[in-house]
Amino acid sequence: MKKVIAALAVTGILLSGPINSEAALGDQTLKANMKHQDVVELQGVLQKKGFFNSNHRSTYFGASTKRAVMNFQKKNGLRADGIVGANTYKALSLTKKTSSQVKAASSKTPSTLVSVAKKYTGVPYVWGGNTPKGFDCSGFLKYVFKEGAETSIPRTVADIYNKGTKVSSPQVGDIVFFQTYKKGASHAGIYIGGNKFIHSSSSKGVTTTSLDNSYWSQRYLGAKRIIN
C-alpha cells in the first residue's frame, strides 16, 4: 500500500487536497479579472436566467459577474467559487470551447480589424446606415468591430468615446475621434498606420484620410484603444 501511495505521489495523481476541477481547466476557464469575448456571452446567459442584473455587458469579468456566477452555482448545487469551468459551463448549457477555438478567437488582431475595414472602401455614406449597403461613421465602426474583432461597441460616436482606454499616440486598430458639427466627439474612424485613418465620410463614403488633412487635423480630439 505504501508503494502505491508513493507511486501516486510521484506521478502527481495524489494531491494535498481535493481537486478543484473548475480552476484547473486552463485557458478556457473564465474567472475574475479576466478579459475575454466569452464573458459577454456568459453575462447574457446569466441575465436571461435572472442572475446578472446589469444591462451593461463587457468583455471584463468583474465583481458583478463573479457574484452572478456564484449565485447561479449556489442555486444549482455547484461549488460557489465564481469560476466558470466544466461543471458550470454544463449547468449553464454553454458549449465549452476547445483550445483550437480559443486560438482562432484570439487571432482577431488589430491588423485583422483594419483588413475588414478596408474591404468596405467605397461603400456610400448613409445617415443612420449600419450595413454594407451604406454606413454613417459610427455604423461603420460598429459593423467593422463586430466582424473584425468580434467586439460589440456602442452605436453613437459620443458613447464610443466614453469606452476604451485613452492613448497619447494611436496605434493600428485604435479609434481616432474628431469634433465636427457639435461640441464633443461627433466623428470617428479607425487608425490604420502611417498617420492615416479609415472612416465613413459624409462626402466620400468609406475612405482613407490622413490625420494631417487640414480639415481633420484642426478637429482631432484624440484616440481610444478598444482592443489590445
Automatic annotation (TrEMBL):
Alphabetically, the GO molecular function entries are: cysteine-type peptidase activity
Q: Where is the NlpC/P60 domain?
A: 107-227
Alphabetical UniProt keywords:
Hydrolase, Protease, Signal, Thiol protease
The secretion signal range is 1-23
User: Where does the source fall among the domains of life?
Assistant: Bacteria
Q: InterPro entries in the record, alphabetically?
A: NLP_P60_dom, Papain-like_cys_pep_sf, Peptidase_C40, Peptidoglycan-bd-like, PGBD-like_sf, PGBDSf
Identify the SUPFAM superfamilies for this entry.
Cysteine proteinases, PGBD-like
Q: Which Pfam families match?
A: NLPC_P60, PG_binding_1
One BP annotation, GO: proteolysis
Give the protein's recorded name. Endopeptidase
Q: Which species is this record about?
A: Domibacillus mangrovi
